[in-house]
Automatic annotation (TrEMBL):
SUPFAM superfamilies: CheY-like. Keywords: Phosphoprotein. The keyword NAD does not apply. The modification 4-aspartylphosphate is found at residue 53. It comes from Coprococcus hominis (ex Arizal et al. 2022). Residues 3-118 form the Response regulatory domain. May play the central regulatory role in sporulation. It may be an element of the effector pathway responsible for the activation of sporulation genes in response to nutritional stress. Spo0A may act in concert with spo0H (a sigma factor) to control the expression of some genes that are critical to the sporulation process. It comes from the Bacteria. It holds the Pfam family Response_reg. This is Stage 0 sporulation protein A homolog.
Length: 120
């Protein structure tokens, strides 16, 4: 199955997402707490897909997405957003986000989004 990097400043969100991904056969290659760590880990592991929270300290998810896509144009990044982040979601789409997952997480939505993005 695909290798996935989780980037989210919420330990709870990372734990929930890891559990959902691993239960569905995906391999979580790492977890990052902010956009800069996410970029660094992407460069190190080059996963098949990244789940990227939008609002994080140090570097936002949108800025991390832009940096990843600039250096790795084929990167597949799925943004994770809470309600009320439409402006950031628009910027993320314009910056190359493959898809979105909304919090709170829905197992079927996550499975469908990841399958669609990975199959491409």
């Amino acid at each position: 199955m695909a290798n996935i990097l989780i980037v989210d400043d919420s330990r709870t969100s990372r734990k929930i997402l890891r559990g959902l991904l691993e239960a569905n056969g995906y391999v979580v290659v790492g977890e990052a707490k902010n956009g800069q760590e996410g970029y660094d880990m992407y460069a190190q592991y080059k996963p098949d897909l990244v789940t990227m929270d939008i609002t994080m300290p140090v570097m936002s998810g949108v800025d991390s997405l832009k940096k990843i896509k600039a250096d790795f144009p084929d990167a597949k990044v799925v943004m994770v957003s809470a309600a009320g982040q439409q402006h950031n979601m628009l910027e993320a789409v314009q910056s190359g986000a493959a898809e979105f997952i909304a919090k709170p997480f829905d197992v079927e939505t996550i499975k469908n989004v990841l399958k669609t993005v990975l199959e491409g």
